[in-house]
Sequence to fold (256 residues):
Amino acid sequence: MSAAAILRAQIEEKLANRIPAAVSLKIKQPPELLPTGITEIDAMLDGGIPRGCITEISGASSTGRTSFGLCSVATITRCGAACAWVDVCDALSPESAAAAGVELKRLLWLRAGGERQHTKEQVLSRLEQAIKATGLLLKAGGFAAIVLDMSDIHSRHTMRIPLSTWYSFRLAAEQARTALIFLTQSPCASSCAALILHCEPASINPLSAAGETALFESQQHILARERNRNEGASFAQKKPLGRSTWQTETTWSRVR
Fold:
């Protein structure tokens, strides 16, 4: 045995009695998973979205981003937990949320307000306010999930947000045991996101089943898993990228 190895063994022996954590291997436990309520997606994600981590859902308009977020929040609130929805561009429809099954009494809705048409300065101001509000909610704790809806914010604005902001959000979400969900046009949280999903359009069913009235009834979406990092075991083998198809229905098709 070399002199260096002997010296290291002696140091570890002394520290093991005085400071056990200094020489013990700390393995981070896998995060709790929150079901999304979509069977196909939960199967692809091995149970749902991770709690205490950042999940980013990106895609173009009408690809299922908001519907997926509402399905997840609906499942969580129906289990009795509280959620928050930070709405940067005042785009959330309470009627659509209720139709998706969200328990509105367990949902805190924060709105930036104002008209949908706004200037660049207004966009940046509302985005800054939304980020500050999200930080305050994470510090307050008590929310199983917080959705930061930046769907209507162009990627050139979200990409300007400093990486340090996402890093602080990741730490705060872990401490609060909150699933922090971003709805964006393109990924912006970089390596701070544990789960990155991309929404794509699939096909639509524009006519009613009876064929008597031409009503839009449903649309299929494709959700691609671009990253699913198991933070409980960084050395674990990475899983291949996955894709799953799911369907959204209109309110009138549900009550028919």
